[in-house]
Amino acid sequence: MPSRNVPTLSTTELAGKTRKARRMQKVEKQNRLIDAIDDANGKETKKDKKKKKRSSGGPPDDDDDSTNDAQAQMEARPDLSTMIVDEETGFELIQQGKNVLDVVTRKAVKLSDRGPDYRLAQMFPGVPPEVREKHRVDWNTVEVPELVEKLRAACSVKLEDGTTGIPPRPSISNEGLDFVLANRDLLGRRMKKTLGRLTMRTAWLEDEKAAKDMDALWMNFLTLENHISAPFRQIIQDAEGRVGPNFGNLELKSYSDGDLYERIGNYIVLKGMVAHWEKKVVDADFIEKNPPVEGKRVSILARGDPKRDLPEPPILFTLKECTQVCAMAQQMCQIFVESDELFADFPPEVVFLEEALKVKGGAALRKYMIDDFCPKRGITPEALREGMRRFFQQLENMQKDPYADLTNKVESLFRAMAIGTDDQRNPYEPYLCNLDKNGPGYFQTYTFNHGKQSIVRFLDNKYENGKIEFIGQPEKEEESSNDGGFLGGLFDFGNENKSGPVKSLRSEPTGVENTLYTAPDVRGMGRPHELGWLEKIETPEEDWLRLGQVPAGRIITED
Hints:
By secondary structure, the protein is mainly α. The protein has helices at residues 11-15, 19-40, 46-55, 66-75, 116-123, 129-135, 144-155, 174-182, 188-204, 208-243, 253-256, 260-289, 297-301, 319-338, 340-343, 348-356, 362-377, 381-396, 400-418, 429-432, 455-460, 521-524, 533-537, and strands spanning 82-85, 92-95, 157-158, 164-165, 172-173, 467-469, 516-518, 555-556. A hairpin with a 6-residue loop joins strand 1 (82-85) and strand 2. Helix 10 packs across helix 12, helix 12 runs antiparallel to helix 14 (319-338) and helix 18 (381-396) runs antiparallel to helix 19 (400-418).
C-alpha cells in the first residue's frame, strides 16, 4: 500500500485542483442539486432528457455519469489530507482525505470496535463521575487566572530534562484530556481566544519566556480540542457521504437509517444544510432588493458568497435557486424528524435543537424548556444547558462551510437558555470584550512593513496617503489598469508583479534595500510601526513542520 503522503498519480490528476477542474466540479454539483429538486417535484431532469436522447439514437453526452464521476473523485482521495502543488498556479493546496486526521497519533481516526454505544460516547464524550468531581471547576467563583493555571497543571508532564512542563507537540497528557473533558462546555472557543490574547500580552510586555510558555499551553489546548472532536468530525463526514449523494431523495429511511450515532450524524448534516441554505436565501433576498449603488457596495460585498461576482459563477446564488434548494432541504429534514424510527431516541440536546427553533422569543423558550421539555425528557434545565454547550463545542470544531450557520443557531439557543441563571456569568469578558488599555487581555498592536506583493499592501493602495520611503534607487512601477466598475477595481491585480507568490505577507519588499513602508493613516490609526514583539514568539520558518511531516505524538500517562 503506497504511503498516504506520496500520491501514485500526478498531483493534478489526483486532486483535480486546477482552477478549471475546481470550477467544473462545482458546476456538476450545482447541476445535481437542480436535478434533485426537479425530480422531487415531478419535473423532467437533465438526466431524463439525456436518457431519451440515447434511446432515440442520439450521441451520448460526456457528462451523463456526473454522479459516478463525483463518486470516483471521492475514491481518488488519499486516506488522509495531504499537501499538493497546483501545477497551473504553483500554489500549495491541501487535498481533503477520506478520513479525519487524529492530530496526536497522526493517523486516521478510529471509531471504537466495541459497538455503537461506544461510538456514541466518542461522538459526545464525557468523563466518569469521579474524574468530573476531581476536575470540574466552580463556575460561580472561578476566574480566568485560576482556569489557566489548572489547565496548565493538568497538561504538564515530566520532560526529558527532568523539569515539568507542556509536552512537545503533538503529544498531550492524559490528565489534561480529563480536565478539558470535565470542563469542555466552560472552556472551548473562549479559552482558545483568551490563551491567544495572554500570549500576545506577555510578548508585548517583553516577557519572552512567559510568552513562549503561554504559547505552548495555547497550542497544547488546541491539540486537545482537535483530538477530542476528531471522532465527531469523522462521524459527520461519513454521514455526508450518505446524505449528500441522496439530496432530493425523499425516501429518507433508505439511506438515513442505522445505529443511533449514525442517525444523529445524518440529522446534523440535514440540519446544517437547512441552516446554511436558509442563510443563503436571506442573503440573496437582501442582494436582490438592494442594487449596487454608491454607499452600499461594502455592505453588499459582505453578504453571501462573493463568488457570485465571478464571470462564470460556479455556485447557486439567485433568490429563486436558493429558495428551491432550501425548500428541498427543509422537506428532507422534516421527513426525517417525523419518522419515529429515525428520530425518537435522540439525546435531549439534539431533540431540543429541533423543538426550540420553533419557539419565538427568549422568555417563551425558557418557559418551554422548564415547564414542558425538561419534565417530559427527565432532565434538569442545568443538565440540558450543559449538554447544549457541549454540543455547540463539537459543532464549533467543524469546518465553517457549511456548519457555521447551524453552530451559530446552537450558540444563540444556549445563550438564551442561560439568561437569569448562574450559567450567564462570563469570567472571560474582561479579557475578550474590553477596550481598556489597562485591561488584563490588552496588548499593543502595530503596523508591519508588508511585502510589496502582499494583499495588505494591495488594499492599502486604495488610500491616498499610503507610501513607501526609499533609500536608494526604487524599483520601476508598472502602470495601474484599474477599470473601476461595481467592485471599484477591488479585484484588479493588473498593477501587481505576477512573478510568483510571496513567502511571507510581512516580508521586506524584494529588490529594494533599506525600504520603510508607511501604512495609511486610516489603517495605522496612530499605532507604532514594527515593534517586533510578535516575531520573538513566532516559530522560525526553517523550523516549520509541513503537513505529512509532523511526527506522531502520544497520550502521556504518569503514575
